Amino acid sequence: MSSIAPMRPALAWPRDEPYEDHPRGTLKSGKEAEIFLVERRFASGPRLLAHKRYRPRYPVKDQLRNEGFSNSTVYRGDSIYKAGWFLRTRDKRAVMGGTRYGHELAGRLWPMQEWTMLRRAWEAGASVPYPVEQTDHGLLMEFIGDDSQAAPKLGQARLTPAELTSAWDQLVENLRALTIAGLVHADLSVYNLLWWEGRLIVIDLPQAVEFTTNSDAYDLLHRDVTNVGEWFTRRGADVDVEALYADLLALAW
């Protein structure tokens, strides 16, 4: 019997009902963005959402605090992920060169990039949070968890041997779905995978790249598979990273 959990059904989202959004606090604070818990109250009942908001690249005095952010902005080296972005020559030169204008432009593009990749991953059948809507400088998505807690990251979850096997099988299916859709996560680790009620969920897709537009896509895919595969191996799972990579390459070609 397969240990792979059935694909999550599409959400029956009450799109046409009026609603009110109520903030419930901060879920996660990262280098470039923060995720806030939002309760969206419909007439038919409330739903919990995760609101990911990217920080301003060059905030003015007190802007971060006034907009609810907790930390200053720290941006990683991300030029490898931007290589496939379709930009005018001037804009691409500014983004890749790290000018002030380039940073400001990238700050506007990252939320759009994440929204696009999240939607594509969802439509490809990958287990990702349901993309609800774009917002100013961010996006609203399905919250993974319940009223008492957020889903733990895979690296923090305590799995039985059977759950470990299931998590690997689900990871393989998700990587296959993304690869068939022409996408590479490009920053995959056990800290951007969630584990909730027997299901593996892939998160954090702003840096995802396409095979057709990014010459580093195959190397990034190998890095993804190796990073996560080593974690499973250390916990006693019987996995073959290179065989999985070869399988994904065949799907990509």
Give structural notes.
There is one protein chain. The chain has a 5-stranded antiparallel beta sheet, with helices on one face. Helix content is 36%, strand content 21%. The chain has helices at 63-66, 79-82, 89-97, 100-123, 161-180, 217-234, 241-252; strands spanning 19-29, 33-42, 45-54, 131-135, 138-142, 183-184, 193-196, 199-202, 209-210. The model is unreliable at 1-7, 64-69 and 73-77 (pLDDT under 50). It has 253 residues and is an alpha+beta fold. The chain is globular. Helix 3 (89-97) packs across helix 4 (100-123) and helix 6 packs antiparallel against helix 7 (241-252). The chain has 2 domains: 19-142, Phosphorylase Kinase, domain 1 (2-Layer Sandwich); 154-252, Transferase(Phosphotransferase) domain 1 (Transferase(Phosphotransferase), domain 1, Orthogonal Bundle), CATH 1.10.510.10.
Describe the secondary-structure layout:
Layout: E1 19-29, E2 33-42, E3 45-54, H1 63-66, H2 79-82, H3 89-97, H4 100-123, E4 131-135, E5 138-142, H5 161-180, E6 183-184, E7 193-196, E8 199-202, E9 209-210, H6 217-234, H7 241-252
Antiparallel strand pairs: 1-2, 2-3, 3-5, 4-5, 6-9, 7-8
Which properties best describe this structure?
single chain, 2 domains, five-stranded antiparallel beta sheet, 7 helices, disordered N terminus, Phosphorylase Kinase, domain 1, 253 residues
